[in-house]
## 1
Amino acid sequence: MKEGARISAIPTRDDGRPTRRDVLTAGLGGLGLAALGLGGLASKQIVPQPLVHDLAAPAPPVIALAPTPACVDQPATDPTEEGPFYAPNTPLKTDFRRPGHRGRELVLRGRVLDVRCRPIPGAVIDLWQTDEDALYDNIDYGYRGHQLTGPGGEFEVSTVFPKGYSILGLVRSPHIHAKVQGAKTKLLTTQIFFPEDAESHARDPRFNPRLVVDLRQSASGPPVATFDFVLEDA
Ligand SMILES: [Fe+2]
Protein backbone atom coordinates (compact mmCIF):
# COMPACT_ATOMS: atom_id res chain seq x y z
CA MET A 1 0.00 0.00 0.00
CA LYS A 2 1.50 3.41 -1.01
CA GLU A 3 0.79 5.67 1.86
CA GLY A 4 0.86 8.86 -0.27
CA ALA A 5 -2.10 7.77 -2.27
CA ARG A 6 -4.36 7.30 0.71
CA ILE A 7 -7.46 9.46 0.77
CA SER A 8 -8.50 10.06 4.31
CA ALA A 9 -9.48 12.65 6.83
CA ILE A 10 -6.45 14.43 8.27
CA PRO A 11 -5.65 12.70 11.54
CA THR A 12 -4.27 14.73 14.42
CA ARG A 13 -1.55 14.39 16.97
CA ASP A 14 -2.28 13.94 20.59
CA ASP A 15 -2.39 17.73 21.02
CA GLY A 16 -5.11 17.95 18.39
CA ARG A 17 -3.00 19.52 15.61
CA PRO A 18 -2.28 17.68 12.36
CA THR A 19 1.26 16.44 11.84
CA ARG A 20 3.39 17.36 8.80
CA ARG A 21 3.17 13.82 7.57
CA ASP A 22 -0.57 13.90 7.91
CA VAL A 23 -0.84 17.12 5.89
CA LEU A 24 1.46 15.77 3.17
CA THR A 25 -0.55 12.60 3.03
CA ALA A 26 -3.80 14.47 2.55
CA GLY A 27 -2.17 16.83 0.02
CA LEU A 28 -0.90 14.01 -2.13
CA GLY A 29 -4.38 12.62 -2.08
CA GLY A 30 -5.54 15.90 -3.57
CA LEU A 31 -2.82 15.73 -6.24
CA GLY A 32 -4.04 12.34 -7.16
CA LEU A 33 -7.51 13.69 -7.69
CA ALA A 34 -6.15 16.58 -9.77
CA ALA A 35 -4.27 14.16 -11.98
CA LEU A 36 -7.55 12.42 -12.59
CA GLY A 37 -9.24 15.66 -13.58
CA LEU A 38 -11.08 15.75 -10.30
CA GLY A 39 -9.24 18.71 -8.85
CA GLY A 40 -12.49 20.31 -7.86
CA LEU A 41 -13.05 17.56 -5.41
CA ALA A 42 -9.65 18.13 -3.82
CA SER A 43 -10.62 21.61 -2.70
CA LYS A 44 -13.70 20.35 -1.01
CA GLN A 45 -13.93 18.74 2.33
CA ILE A 46 -12.44 15.29 2.25
CA VAL A 47 -14.95 12.85 3.55
CA PRO A 48 -13.62 9.95 5.62
CA GLN A 49 -13.70 6.78 3.60
CA PRO A 50 -14.25 3.36 5.10
CA LEU A 51 -12.00 1.83 2.46
CA VAL A 52 -8.45 2.78 1.50
CA HIS A 53 -7.93 3.43 -2.21
CA ASP A 54 -4.49 2.96 -3.68
CA LEU A 55 -4.57 5.13 -6.80
CA ALA A 56 -1.09 4.05 -7.88
CA ALA A 57 -1.90 0.39 -7.83
CA PRO A 58 -2.88 -1.29 -11.08
CA ALA A 59 -6.55 -1.84 -11.56
CA PRO A 60 -7.64 -5.22 -10.29
CA PRO A 61 -8.39 -7.74 -13.00
CA VAL A 62 -11.98 -7.92 -14.10
CA ILE A 63 -13.29 -11.33 -13.18
CA ALA A 64 -16.12 -12.61 -15.28
CA LEU A 65 -18.65 -13.94 -12.81
CA ALA A 66 -21.20 -16.51 -13.72
CA PRO A 67 -24.73 -15.15 -13.52
CA THR A 68 -26.61 -15.94 -10.37
CA PRO A 69 -28.63 -19.06 -11.04
CA ALA A 70 -32.27 -18.29 -11.45
CA CYS A 71 -35.03 -20.83 -11.34
CA VAL A 72 -36.98 -20.59 -14.55
CA ASP A 73 -38.37 -24.07 -14.57
CA GLN A 74 -38.09 -27.18 -12.45
CA PRO A 75 -39.43 -30.71 -12.56
CA ALA A 76 -42.64 -31.49 -10.76
CA THR A 77 -42.35 -33.48 -7.54
CA ASP A 78 -42.43 -37.22 -8.14
CA PRO A 79 -45.72 -38.88 -7.25
CA THR A 80 -45.92 -41.90 -4.99
CA GLU A 81 -48.84 -44.17 -4.30
CA GLU A 82 -51.54 -43.04 -1.89
CA GLY A 83 -51.40 -46.20 0.22
CA PRO A 84 -54.24 -47.73 2.23
CA PHE A 85 -54.39 -45.24 5.11
CA TYR A 86 -55.63 -42.05 3.46
CA ALA A 87 -58.73 -40.48 5.01
CA PRO A 88 -60.71 -37.71 3.27
CA ASN A 89 -62.17 -34.62 4.91
CA THR A 90 -59.36 -34.12 7.39
CA PRO A 91 -59.58 -31.16 9.76
CA LEU A 92 -57.79 -27.89 9.16
CA LYS A 93 -54.75 -28.39 11.37
CA THR A 94 -51.16 -27.17 11.62
CA ASP A 95 -50.26 -28.88 14.90
CA PHE A 96 -50.50 -32.67 14.86
CA ARG A 97 -48.94 -33.24 18.28
CA ARG A 98 -51.06 -35.10 20.77
CA PRO A 99 -50.83 -33.89 24.39
CA GLY A 100 -48.45 -36.15 26.26
CA HIS A 101 -47.10 -37.81 23.15
CA ARG A 102 -43.87 -39.80 23.36
CA GLY A 103 -42.62 -38.92 19.91
CA ARG A 104 -39.60 -36.92 18.84
CA GLU A 105 -40.92 -33.55 17.81
CA LEU A 106 -40.43 -32.15 14.35
CA VAL A 107 -41.36 -29.05 12.39
CA LEU A 108 -42.07 -29.65 8.72
CA ARG A 109 -42.21 -26.61 6.50
CA GLY A 110 -41.78 -25.65 2.88
CA ARG A 111 -43.52 -24.12 -0.08
CA VAL A 112 -45.83 -25.20 -2.84
CA LEU A 113 -44.56 -24.03 -6.23
CA ASP A 114 -45.46 -24.44 -9.87
CA VAL A 115 -43.01 -25.79 -12.45
CA ARG A 116 -41.94 -22.22 -13.27
CA CYS A 117 -40.83 -21.77 -9.66
CA ARG A 118 -43.71 -19.48 -8.75
CA PRO A 119 -45.28 -19.91 -5.31
CA ILE A 120 -48.87 -21.09 -5.20
CA PRO A 121 -50.83 -19.35 -2.46
CA GLY A 122 -54.02 -20.97 -1.26
CA ALA A 123 -52.95 -24.49 -2.29
CA VAL A 124 -54.40 -27.32 -0.23
CA ILE A 125 -51.81 -29.53 1.43
CA ASP A 126 -53.15 -32.59 3.21
CA LEU A 127 -50.65 -34.59 5.29
CA TRP A 128 -50.93 -37.89 7.12
CA GLN A 129 -48.42 -40.05 8.94
CA THR A 130 -47.88 -42.68 11.60
CA ASP A 131 -47.49 -41.71 15.23
CA GLU A 132 -44.69 -42.66 17.61
CA ASP A 133 -46.06 -46.23 17.74
CA ALA A 134 -46.10 -46.60 13.94
CA LEU A 135 -49.90 -46.45 13.86
CA TYR A 136 -52.21 -44.51 11.56
CA ASP A 137 -55.31 -42.99 13.13
CA ASN A 138 -58.18 -43.26 10.65
CA ILE A 139 -60.85 -42.51 13.25
CA ASP A 140 -59.90 -39.38 15.16
CA TYR A 141 -57.67 -37.80 12.51
CA GLY A 142 -54.60 -38.15 14.72
CA TYR A 143 -51.44 -37.02 12.95
CA ARG A 144 -53.30 -35.95 9.87
CA GLY A 145 -54.82 -32.71 8.70
CA HIS A 146 -54.86 -30.15 5.91
CA GLN A 147 -53.96 -26.49 5.57
CA LEU A 148 -53.83 -23.80 2.90
CA THR A 149 -50.55 -22.29 1.81
CA GLY A 150 -49.81 -18.65 2.60
CA PRO A 151 -49.14 -15.76 0.20
CA GLY A 152 -45.67 -17.12 -0.61
CA GLY A 153 -46.89 -20.68 -1.03
CA GLU A 154 -45.58 -21.54 2.43
CA PHE A 155 -46.85 -24.16 4.85
CA GLU A 156 -45.74 -25.44 8.24
CA VAL A 157 -46.86 -28.19 10.58
CA SER A 158 -45.70 -29.15 14.06
CA THR A 159 -45.64 -32.90 14.47
CA VAL A 160 -43.42 -35.81 15.52
CA PHE A 161 -41.15 -37.97 13.43
CA PRO A 162 -43.20 -40.77 11.86
CA LYS A 163 -42.24 -44.37 12.60
CA GLY A 164 -41.58 -46.90 9.89
CA TYR A 165 -43.63 -50.05 9.63
CA SER A 166 -44.04 -53.27 7.72
CA ILE A 167 -47.29 -54.31 6.06
CA LEU A 168 -47.83 -57.61 4.25
CA GLY A 169 -44.09 -58.04 4.03
CA LEU A 170 -43.56 -54.57 2.59
CA VAL A 171 -41.00 -52.57 4.56
CA ARG A 172 -41.84 -48.89 4.82
CA SER A 173 -39.18 -46.42 5.83
CA PRO A 174 -40.50 -43.54 7.94
CA HIS A 175 -42.44 -41.17 5.69
CA ILE A 176 -45.16 -38.56 5.61
CA HIS A 177 -47.89 -38.82 3.00
CA ALA A 178 -49.07 -35.72 1.17
CA LYS A 179 -51.78 -34.69 -1.23
CA VAL A 180 -51.20 -31.23 -2.65
CA GLN A 181 -53.19 -29.21 -5.16
CA GLY A 182 -53.44 -25.60 -6.26
CA ALA A 183 -56.39 -23.97 -7.98
CA LYS A 184 -54.82 -24.45 -11.43
CA THR A 185 -52.68 -27.54 -10.89
CA LYS A 186 -53.00 -31.26 -11.01
CA LEU A 187 -53.36 -33.12 -7.74
CA LEU A 188 -50.04 -34.47 -6.46
CA THR A 189 -50.06 -37.54 -4.22
CA THR A 190 -46.66 -38.36 -2.81
CA GLN A 191 -44.60 -39.25 0.27
CA ILE A 192 -41.55 -37.61 1.79
CA PHE A 193 -38.69 -39.30 3.63
CA PHE A 194 -35.95 -38.42 6.11
CA PRO A 195 -32.20 -38.47 5.50
CA GLU A 196 -31.40 -40.24 8.77
CA ASP A 197 -33.19 -43.44 7.76
CA ALA A 198 -30.71 -44.67 5.16
CA GLU A 199 -30.78 -48.24 6.44
CA SER A 200 -34.52 -48.60 5.99
CA HIS A 201 -34.49 -46.65 2.72
CA ALA A 202 -32.54 -49.51 1.22
CA ARG A 203 -35.26 -51.98 2.18
CA ASP A 204 -38.26 -49.87 1.17
CA PRO A 205 -39.21 -50.33 -2.52
CA ARG A 206 -41.28 -47.12 -2.33
CA PHE A 207 -38.30 -45.00 -1.28
CA ASN A 208 -37.32 -42.26 -3.72
CA PRO A 209 -34.15 -40.23 -3.05
CA ARG A 210 -35.71 -37.19 -4.72
CA LEU A 211 -38.34 -37.12 -1.99
CA VAL A 212 -35.98 -36.70 0.98
CA VAL A 213 -36.46 -33.61 3.12
CA ASP A 214 -33.68 -31.23 4.12
CA LEU A 215 -33.37 -31.85 7.86
CA ARG A 216 -31.61 -29.41 10.16
CA GLN A 217 -31.21 -29.15 13.89
CA SER A 218 -32.51 -26.05 15.59
CA ALA A 219 -30.91 -24.38 18.59
CA SER A 220 -34.23 -23.20 19.94
CA GLY A 221 -36.70 -25.92 19.05
CA PRO A 222 -37.31 -29.24 17.34
CA PRO A 223 -35.43 -30.20 14.18
CA VAL A 224 -36.79 -28.55 11.05
CA ALA A 225 -37.51 -30.55 7.91
CA THR A 226 -37.92 -28.53 4.74
CA PHE A 227 -39.48 -29.71 1.50
CA ASP A 228 -40.95 -27.82 -1.46
CA PHE A 229 -43.73 -29.47 -3.45
CA VAL A 230 -43.74 -28.63 -7.16
CA LEU A 231 -47.05 -29.08 -8.97
CA GLU A 232 -47.81 -29.60 -12.63
CA ASP A 233 -50.26 -27.28 -14.34
CA ALA A 234 -53.75 -28.64 -14.73
FE1 LIG B 1 -47.62 -44.86 4.92
## 2
Amino acid sequence: MSIHLRFLGTGGSFGIPIVGCDCVACQSSDPMDNRLRSSVLLSWDDRVVLVDAGPDLRAQALREGVRRLDEVWLTHSHADHTNGIDDLRVFCHEGKEPRPLIVRGNPSTLTDAMARFSYAFRSEVDPSGVSHPLLVPIEIDGPFHTLGRQIVPIPVLHGKLPCSGFRIGNLAYLTDVSTIPESSYALLEGLDTLVLSALREEPHPTHLSFDESIAVARRIGARRTWFTHFAHRITHAGMLERFPDGIRPAWDGLRLEIPE
Ligand SMILES: [Zn+2]
Ligand SMILES: [Zn+2]
Ligand SMILES: [Zn+2]
Protein backbone atom coordinates (compact mmCIF):
# COMPACT_ATOMS: atom_id res chain seq x y z
CA MET A 1 0.00 0.00 0.00
CA SER A 2 1.72 3.17 -1.18
CA ILE A 3 1.26 6.58 0.31
CA HIS A 4 0.62 9.46 -2.06
CA LEU A 5 1.57 13.07 -1.36
CA ARG A 6 0.41 16.07 -3.38
CA PHE A 7 1.88 19.52 -2.87
CA LEU A 8 -1.03 21.96 -2.71
CA GLY A 9 1.36 24.84 -2.08
CA THR A 10 5.11 25.31 -1.66
CA GLY A 11 5.40 29.03 -0.92
CA GLY A 12 6.27 30.87 2.28
CA SER A 13 3.81 33.04 4.16
CA PHE A 14 3.50 35.63 1.34
CA GLY A 15 3.21 33.10 -1.47
CA ILE A 16 5.02 33.78 -4.77
CA PRO A 17 4.67 36.16 -6.52
CA ILE A 18 4.48 38.65 -3.67
CA VAL A 19 2.11 41.50 -4.35
CA GLY A 20 4.08 44.47 -5.68
CA CYS A 21 7.50 42.73 -5.83
CA ASP A 22 9.86 43.03 -8.81
CA CYS A 23 12.36 40.31 -7.88
CA VAL A 24 13.40 37.58 -10.32
CA ALA A 25 11.12 34.94 -8.77
CA CYS A 26 8.08 37.21 -8.45
CA GLN A 27 8.49 38.36 -12.09
CA SER A 28 9.26 34.88 -13.47
CA SER A 29 7.08 33.48 -16.27
CA ASP A 30 7.93 29.89 -15.26
CA PRO A 31 4.77 28.29 -13.79
CA MET A 32 7.03 26.55 -11.24
CA ASP A 33 7.58 30.00 -9.71
CA ASN A 34 3.92 30.37 -8.83
CA ARG A 35 3.72 29.14 -5.27
CA LEU A 36 0.62 29.20 -3.08
CA ARG A 37 0.93 28.95 0.70
CA SER A 38 2.35 25.61 1.85
CA SER A 39 0.19 22.56 2.47
CA VAL A 40 0.00 18.96 1.30
CA LEU A 41 -2.59 16.29 0.74
CA LEU A 42 -1.75 12.78 1.94
CA SER A 43 -3.68 9.79 0.69
CA TRP A 44 -3.68 6.02 1.01
CA ASP A 45 -6.38 3.54 0.01
CA ASP A 46 -9.34 5.88 -0.35
CA ARG A 47 -8.34 7.98 2.67
CA VAL A 48 -7.47 11.66 2.29
CA VAL A 49 -5.78 13.89 4.89
CA LEU A 50 -5.06 17.59 4.50
CA VAL A 51 -1.96 18.87 6.29
CA ASP A 52 -2.53 22.59 7.01
CA ALA A 53 -5.41 24.75 5.85
CA GLY A 54 -3.82 27.92 4.52
CA PRO A 55 -5.44 30.98 2.94
CA ASP A 56 -5.21 29.46 -0.57
CA LEU A 57 -7.15 26.32 0.35
CA ARG A 58 -10.15 26.93 -1.91
CA ALA A 59 -8.03 27.52 -5.03
CA GLN A 60 -5.85 24.53 -4.18
CA ALA A 61 -8.82 22.20 -3.69
CA LEU A 62 -10.32 23.30 -7.02
CA ARG A 63 -7.01 22.89 -8.86
CA GLU A 64 -6.40 19.40 -7.48
CA GLY A 65 -10.00 18.21 -7.62
CA VAL A 66 -10.24 17.56 -3.87
CA ARG A 67 -13.81 16.50 -3.10
CA ARG A 68 -13.58 14.89 0.30
CA LEU A 69 -11.35 15.01 3.37
CA ASP A 70 -11.17 12.43 6.14
CA GLU A 71 -9.09 14.52 8.56
CA VAL A 72 -7.06 17.72 8.81
CA TRP A 73 -3.71 17.85 10.63
CA LEU A 74 -2.27 21.24 11.55
CA THR A 75 1.49 21.73 11.90
CA HIS A 76 1.06 25.02 13.81
CA SER A 77 -1.27 27.98 14.03
CA HIS A 78 0.40 30.66 11.90
CA ALA A 79 -1.98 32.37 9.50
CA ASP A 80 -0.34 30.91 6.38
CA HIS A 81 -1.24 27.43 7.72
CA THR A 82 -4.66 28.06 9.26
CA ASN A 83 -6.40 30.99 7.57
CA GLY A 84 -8.27 28.59 5.27
CA ILE A 85 -10.11 26.97 8.18
CA ASP A 86 -13.37 28.63 7.15
CA ASP A 87 -13.03 26.99 3.71
CA LEU A 88 -13.19 23.55 5.38
CA ARG A 89 -16.94 24.14 5.56
CA VAL A 90 -17.49 22.53 2.16
CA PHE A 91 -15.91 19.29 3.45
CA CYS A 92 -18.17 19.09 6.51
CA HIS A 93 -21.23 17.74 4.75
CA GLU A 94 -22.03 14.53 2.97
CA GLY A 95 -24.86 15.39 0.64
CA LYS A 96 -27.13 17.43 2.88
CA GLU A 97 -26.08 15.59 6.02
CA PRO A 98 -23.62 17.25 8.41
CA ARG A 99 -20.36 15.32 8.67
CA PRO A 100 -18.06 16.76 11.37
CA LEU A 101 -14.38 16.81 10.38
CA ILE A 102 -11.56 15.90 12.77
CA VAL A 103 -8.79 18.51 13.13
CA ARG A 104 -5.63 17.40 14.91
CA GLY A 105 -2.93 19.66 16.30
CA ASN A 106 -0.64 20.03 19.29
CA PRO A 107 -2.05 21.91 22.32
CA SER A 108 -0.81 25.39 21.38
CA THR A 109 -1.93 24.98 17.77
CA LEU A 110 -5.46 23.97 18.74
CA THR A 111 -5.74 26.65 21.43
CA ASP A 112 -4.82 29.36 18.90
CA ALA A 113 -6.94 27.98 16.08
CA MET A 114 -9.98 27.58 18.33
CA ALA A 115 -9.58 31.14 19.64
CA ARG A 116 -9.48 32.56 16.11
CA PHE A 117 -12.12 30.30 14.55
CA SER A 118 -14.28 29.53 17.60
CA TYR A 119 -17.45 29.30 15.50
CA ALA A 120 -15.89 26.62 13.28
CA PHE A 121 -15.18 24.31 16.21
CA ARG A 122 -18.81 24.05 17.23
CA SER A 123 -19.58 20.59 15.99
CA GLU A 124 -23.35 21.12 15.98
CA VAL A 125 -25.26 22.80 13.21
CA ASP A 126 -26.17 26.37 14.18
CA PRO A 127 -29.90 26.46 15.09
CA SER A 128 -30.28 29.77 13.23
CA GLY A 129 -29.22 28.01 10.05
CA VAL A 130 -25.95 29.90 9.60
CA SER A 131 -23.52 27.60 7.83
CA HIS A 132 -20.07 27.07 9.33
CA PRO A 133 -17.43 24.33 9.43
CA LEU A 134 -18.15 21.48 11.86
CA LEU A 135 -14.71 20.78 13.27
CA VAL A 136 -13.84 18.34 16.03
CA PRO A 137 -10.49 19.14 17.67
CA ILE A 138 -8.27 16.25 18.76
CA GLU A 139 -5.07 17.06 20.60
CA ILE A 140 -1.83 15.46 19.45
CA ASP A 141 0.16 14.12 22.41
CA GLY A 142 2.15 11.33 20.78
CA PRO A 143 1.80 8.69 18.08
CA PHE A 144 -1.79 7.95 17.09
CA HIS A 145 -3.66 5.43 14.98
CA THR A 146 -6.22 6.62 12.47
CA LEU A 147 -7.71 5.65 9.10
CA GLY A 148 -5.88 2.33 9.24
CA ARG A 149 -2.40 3.80 9.78
CA GLN A 150 -0.01 4.49 12.62
CA ILE A 151 1.04 8.17 12.53
CA VAL A 152 4.10 9.51 14.35
CA PRO A 153 4.02 13.24 15.07
CA ILE A 154 7.52 14.74 14.97
CA PRO A 155 7.97 17.59 17.48
CA VAL A 156 10.08 20.40 16.00
CA LEU A 157 10.64 24.03 16.95
CA HIS A 158 9.72 27.04 14.79
CA GLY A 159 11.62 29.71 16.72
CA LYS A 160 10.19 29.02 20.17
CA LEU A 161 6.86 27.72 18.89
CA PRO A 162 6.27 23.95 19.13
CA CYS A 163 5.35 22.74 15.67
CA SER A 164 4.29 19.23 14.56
CA GLY A 165 5.79 17.33 11.67
CA PHE A 166 4.25 14.02 10.67
CA ARG A 167 5.73 10.64 9.79
CA ILE A 168 3.58 8.11 8.03
CA GLY A 169 5.36 4.94 6.98
CA ASN A 170 8.62 5.96 5.28
CA LEU A 171 7.50 9.54 4.58
CA ALA A 172 8.02 12.57 6.82
CA TYR A 173 6.63 16.08 6.27
CA LEU A 174 8.34 18.82 8.29
CA THR A 175 7.57 22.46 7.61
CA ASP A 176 8.32 25.73 9.41
CA VAL A 177 11.31 24.27 11.20
CA SER A 178 14.21 26.07 12.84
CA THR A 179 15.36 23.33 15.24
CA ILE A 180 14.88 19.58 15.32
CA PRO A 181 15.36 18.23 18.86
CA GLU A 182 17.67 15.21 19.25
CA SER A 183 14.73 13.05 20.37
CA SER A 184 12.97 13.83 17.08
CA TYR A 185 15.93 12.78 14.93
CA ALA A 186 15.43 9.31 16.41
CA LEU A 187 11.92 9.28 14.92
CA LEU A 188 13.27 10.09 11.44
CA GLU A 189 15.48 7.06 10.80
CA GLY A 190 15.08 4.94 7.70
CA LEU A 191 13.01 7.39 5.64
CA ASP A 192 12.41 6.92 1.93
CA THR A 193 11.12 10.48 1.43
CA LEU A 194 11.66 13.60 3.51
CA VAL A 195 9.82 16.85 2.84
CA LEU A 196 11.52 19.72 4.70
CA SER A 197 11.06 23.48 4.69
CA ALA A 198 13.97 25.59 3.41
CA LEU A 199 13.00 29.24 3.47
CA ARG A 200 15.79 31.17 1.79
CA GLU A 201 19.54 31.71 1.37
CA GLU A 202 19.92 34.11 4.33
CA PRO A 203 19.50 33.00 7.96
CA HIS A 204 16.10 33.59 9.56
CA PRO A 205 15.20 33.55 13.28
CA THR A 206 12.37 31.00 12.94
CA HIS A 207 13.19 29.05 9.76
CA LEU A 208 16.08 26.92 8.49
CA SER A 209 18.07 28.62 5.72
CA PHE A 210 19.13 26.68 2.60
CA ASP A 211 22.48 25.62 4.07
CA GLU A 212 20.87 24.68 7.38
CA SER A 213 18.16 22.64 5.64
CA ILE A 214 20.77 20.87 3.52
CA ALA A 215 22.72 19.95 6.69
CA VAL A 216 19.56 18.65 8.39
CA ALA A 217 18.55 16.68 5.28
CA ARG A 218 22.01 15.09 5.10
CA ARG A 219 21.87 14.10 8.73
CA ILE A 220 18.41 12.53 8.35
CA GLY A 221 19.62 10.78 5.21
CA ALA A 222 16.33 9.95 3.46
CA ARG A 223 16.64 8.30 0.04
CA ARG A 224 15.25 11.49 -1.47
CA THR A 225 14.50 14.93 -0.02
CA TRP A 226 12.16 17.61 -1.32
CA PHE A 227 12.37 21.16 -0.01
CA THR A 228 9.29 23.39 0.36
CA HIS A 229 7.98 26.64 1.94
CA PHE A 230 10.16 28.97 -0.11
CA ALA A 231 10.55 32.72 0.11
CA HIS A 232 11.05 34.70 -3.12
CA ARG A 233 14.24 36.08 -4.74
CA ILE A 234 15.32 32.72 -6.18
CA THR A 235 13.62 30.91 -9.05
CA HIS A 236 12.83 27.21 -9.28
CA ALA A 237 15.55 26.91 -11.94
CA GLY A 238 17.98 28.67 -9.60
CA MET A 239 17.15 26.24 -6.81
CA LEU A 240 17.74 23.25 -9.09
CA GLU A 241 21.31 24.48 -9.48
CA ARG A 242 21.68 25.55 -5.86
CA PHE A 243 20.68 22.28 -4.14
CA PRO A 244 22.97 19.22 -4.12
CA ASP A 245 22.20 15.79 -5.53
CA GLY A 246 19.35 14.04 -3.75
CA ILE A 247 17.63 17.30 -2.77
CA ARG A 248 15.07 18.89 -5.07
CA PRO A 249 12.76 21.88 -4.78
CA ALA A 250 9.09 20.85 -4.75
CA TRP A 251 6.51 22.76 -6.79
CA ASP A 252 2.77 23.30 -6.57
CA GLY A 253 0.97 20.27 -7.98
CA LEU A 254 3.94 17.87 -7.64
CA ARG A 255 2.76 14.36 -6.79
CA LEU A 256 4.91 11.77 -5.03
CA GLU A 257 4.29 8.09 -4.46
CA ILE A 258 6.10 6.61 -1.48
CA PRO A 259 6.43 2.82 -1.80
CA GLU A 260 6.37 0.59 1.27
ZN1 LIG B 1 4.62 29.00 7.20
ZN1 LIG C 1 9.80 38.88 -4.98
ZN1 LIG D 1 5.00 29.39 10.61
